[in-house]
Structure formats: structure tokens, C-alpha cells
Amino acid sequence: MPDPKNQLGRAFKVNADAVGEPGNRRFRLLIEAEFGSASLWMEKEQLFQLATTIQRLLSTADMSASDVPSIAPDRAGDMEFDFQVGQLMINDESRGSILQLQANDQEETDPRTPTLGTLLDLKQLKSLSEEALIVCAAGRPRCPLCGVAMGPEGHQCVRTNGYHKELLDDLPSR
After folding, report:
1. 138-146 CB contacts, 8 Å cutoff, 24+ apart
2. DSSP bridge partners of 91
3. Which of 30, 98, 109, 164 gets the highest tally of CB atoms within 10 A of its CB?
4. Cα separations (Å) of 30 from 48, 73, 122, 138, 174?
5. pTM for the structure as a whole
6. In whole angstroms, what is the distance from residue 130 CA to residue 50 CA?
7. In the chain, where are the structural domains located?
């Protein structure tokens, strides 16, 4: 895999975040690193898939080798990125407990070369995946029958089609 066009270096902070009201939220990763910072905007499903992918990756990793910096050194660069993510990747090529998170800008003309890369420790990845799952779960509740997000005004489930009144009684109250 080619090196990213822009390398932020070692990340000091990486957080998952959602902006807006449930049903109308935008999701992002906030990264503070050696050579700059980034706001990587993405769909909720992308954030959820990143979290589950990290958890699968960590299920086979040796967490004792992690080395999160205890004190964030002064930033050595001032690169700033703010873009909609087209694709996210985790590259674990021979770095041991340090992995590279790579992101492609959705507007990028050459999707084969990542727009941005930053280095993360296994413990940072674990923390990010846990936080991302909490952010994703904080939205509207889902219908237990069809999985569609339910709004405050209620939900007409396509699986009941209005004819199965007894199923509606089993749905959780709002």
C-alpha cells in the first residue's frame, strides 16, 4: 500500500464525535498529532464499521506492547485537514504495536494513494473503538422488528403493515 500524501505523524489524541440532533447528526474523527490535526467527517455506518474492525483486529493483538505517550510533546507542524472521508484503512505493515490509520478524501482524484495518515497505538485504537460505538449508539432507538431508526413521532413498521396490532404492543415504549 502506498504511503499517504500527508503524514500527521504520531497521534496524541483521537476521538469519535457526533454533531447535531439524533436523526440529523454528522459523525467525525478528531485527530491531534505531531504534525497537525484533522477532522475526518464520515457516515455513521463508516464510524461503526471502523469500530468493529478495530475490535476484530485487537482480538488477536498483544496489548502489553502498547506505548501511548504519557505527555503530548509540542506539535512540530501545523497541517490541518477537514474533509469528508471516502475510505478508511488501518495499515499494520511491520510496525508492531503502532498502526497507521489512513483516510482518503471523498473528493480525491486518485483513491489508490491515501490523502492522510496518522500513527496510533493499540491502546489508542481500543479507546477509539469503544468511544465510536458509544457515539453510534447514542442516536435514535431502532425498531426491533425492521431495524429502522424510530423518531420521537413514532414509527410505522413495514413488517407489521398496520395489521398486526399484537406486535405493536410488544414494541418498547418511547
Report:
1. 138/18, 138/22, 139/18, 139/22, 139/23, 139/25, 139/44, 140/22, 140/23, 141/172, 141/174, 143/171, 144/170, 144/171, 144/172, 145/171
2. 100
3. 98
4. 15, 18, 17, 18, 32
5. 0.77
6. 11
7. 6-139, 141-174
